[in-house]
Design goal:
Layout lengths: L4 H4 L12 H13 L5 E6 L5 H13 L13 H8 L5 E5 L6 H10 L10 E6 L6 H12 L5 E7 L7 H4 L3 E5 L4 H14 L3 E2 L1 H11 L3 H14 L2 E2 L1 H8 L5 H11 L3 H13 L4 H20 L11 H12 L3 H18 L5 H13 L7 H16 L25 E4 L22 E2 L3 H11 L1 H6 L4 E5 L2 E5 L5 H5 L2 H15 L4 E6 L10 H10 L1
Parallel strand pairs: 1-4, 1-5, 2-3, 3-4, 6-7, 11-12
Antiparallel strand pairs: 8-12, 9-10, 10-11
Helix pairs in contact: 2-3, 3-4, 5-6, 8-9, 9-10, 9-11, 10-11, 12-13, 13-17, 14-15, 14-16, 16-17, 16-18, 19-22
């Protein structure tokens, strides 16, 4: 029967354990000198060797032929512990045996002397899963166990253990194994298994494993199932590093301040059943990689990706500034917390995408610094800076009263697809509320979903042969100037009313000149 690599190559002696020499050497010396504690606590991240060392320890304290603190693995005791025929070594999963009754049974069994070995060894894995009552039941036995009993507790979350448990154990912290050490071990295993493993593939597996030897061997096992010659490309395909083109495309359009395309990409991913929380996490990691490239001399050691993707990251990092990257990470981290309890995860993700695409909307310091850096680059180039090039943030003022609002209709049929924001007289015709606007939005929800999200709280008015749209969303004016969106609105209006209308924007004329961005005033001073 085939055995997976991480089980087949599980270390059998302390000398076989890699990357934890500070622990294995201490345990071997204690066993050799006979100064063995009654309770040990092994803590560290997954796959670093906690349970493996506990099993080696159980054999070593009972083996009659130890060598330098290591079990011989040849005697009947070692073989019996390995194959499970000797029941004096008990391994307990605290995740499924976490009650008071389980610990009481353990406490009662501990009073019996071992049958085949010198010590009865209890290995309690994931000990942090025990209930408070179970911890209390364990305290007395853990502090003063019978002479023939040893405890080894293992956990990945040591902070969840009571201080009363910690103070009764000899604690060992297992470190994440370095990529170089994992890579070397993988090359050894691959040679023994007759697997052709490239050096760059071994190092990529080691970085993906994030310090866990078990994870690294599992990835190697998966890659070997695809092809006996394991390359970096094979590792990328097997571990899910490939197929991240949509992330580069989203970030490209965010850098280009193109909210329409970003929302269209999110819509496509949503239709393909992409989880929005997962997308948010992937974007955070993507921007983290861009941040590292902008700030670290040798980012390849900190970024888990193929060489091809690293070049794409470097190219994309050159196209944006650090403040923009930090602003996007902050926005995504905030969204990540909200998404867990959001009733509409897609809407929250779209809202975050718009904030990142138009940083002028945000009052965050990193967004402001990003705009200032762009302004400095234009000043250094010696160009005259038009105010329209600055991403302005709407001033926090009260909304004007309805009687002060003026209308901004398109002036001709040819311009209907790209409505002009210029003001016109408010007394040309009487404005009438367009009561069928809700039906129009229902049709747009099918034909143009990104636009529907922008128009969520909008209303519309009729003036002559114009439909005037009132929308407080600052992104709307950019969307309506794009032919595909304006045509979608006109078609939906025609389907509902059976009549062709021209489009206009219903907005405040008096207050428009008051909503100046502080950066716009700065530009005017620079231009003199």
């Amino acid at each position: 029967m085939y055995r997976v690599l991480y089980r087949k190559w599980r270390p059998q002696t302390f000398d076989d354990v890699v990357g934890q020499e500070h622990i294995t050497s201490t345990l071997a010396h204690e066993i050799e000198s006979g100064k063995v504690s009654h309770a040990y606590l092994f803590t560290g991240s997954r796959g670093t060797g906690k349970t493996t060392c506990a099993k080696i320890f159980a054999k070593a304290v009972n083996c009659p032929h130890t060598h330098n603190g290591n079990p011989c693995n040849e005697c009947s005791v070692c073989k019996g512990i390995d194959d499970g025929s000797i029941l004096d070594v008990i391994e307990i999963d605290a995740a499924s045996n976490n009650g008071v009754d389980n610990i009481r049974d353990l406490r009662d069994e501990a009073n019996y002397t071992p049958v085949h070995t010198k010590y009865r060894v209890y290995i309690i894995d994931e000990v942090h899963m025990l209930s408070i009552g179970a911890f209390n039941a364990l305290l007395k036995t853990l502090e003063e166990p019978p002479e023939h009993v040893k405890f080894v507790l293992a956990t990945t979350e040591v902070h969840k253990l009571p201080a009363t448990i910690l103070s009764r154990c000899q604690r060992f912290d297992f470190h994440r194994i370095t990529p170089e050490t994992i890579s070397s071990r993988l090359k050894y295993v691959a040679d023994e298994e007759k697997i052709e493993l490239d050096d760059d593939a071994a190092l990529l597996i080691a970085r993906i494993a994030d310090g866990a030897m078990r994870d690294a061997l599992s990835i190697l096992d998966r890659c070997a199932g695809i092809n006996e010659h394991v390359t970096a490309e094979t590792v990328g395909n097997a571990s899910g590093l490939a197929g991240k083109d949509h992330l580069f495309e989203i970030v490209k359009n965010i850098n280009a301040n193109n909210p329409s395309e970003v929302l269209s990409l999110i819509d496509r991913l949503h239709r393909e059943s992409c989880d929005m929380e997962r997308l948010c996490f992937e974007l955070i990691n993507h921007y983290r990689n861009l941040m590292l490239i902008k700030t670290v001399k040798d980012p390849q050691k900190l970024i888990v990706c193929t060489d091809h993707d690293l070049e794409l990251y470097k190219k994309q990092a050159d196209e944006t500034n650090l403040y923009k990257i930090l602003n996007c990470i902050s926005a995504l981290e905030e969204a990540s917390a909200i998404l867990k309890n959001s009733s509409s995860k897609r809407t929250e993700m779209e809202l975050t995408a718009v904030k990142m695409t138009i940083p002028g909307i945000s009052g965050d310091n990193t967004a402001l610094m990003s705009r200032i850096e762009n302004l400095e680059k234009l000043i250094q180039s010696g160009k005259t800076i038009p105010v329209s090039t600055v991403e302005s943030r709407p001033a926090q003022e009260e909304k004007p009263a309805p009687e002060k609002e003026t209308v901004s209709p398109a002036v001709s049929e040819e311009k209907a697809e790209n409505p002009s924001p210029s003001q016109s007289d408010n007394n040309n015709d009487e404005d009438t509320l367009f009561n069928q606007w809700g039906e129009v939005l229902s049709l747009l929800d099918v034909s143009d979903k990104p636009l529907t999200g922008i128009l969520g709280t909008s209303s519309a008015y009729i003036r002559g042969d114009f439909i005037l749209i009132k929308c407080d969303n600052p992104v709307f004016s950019q969307f309506i100037r794009q032919n595909n969106h304006s045509m979608a609105i006109r078609k939906a209006i025609f389907d509902v009313t059976g009549r062709k209308y021209r489009l206009g924007i219903y907005k405040s004329g008096e207050n428009e000149n008051k909503k100046n961005d502080p950066l716009a005033d700065l530009i005017n001073k620079i231009n003199g």
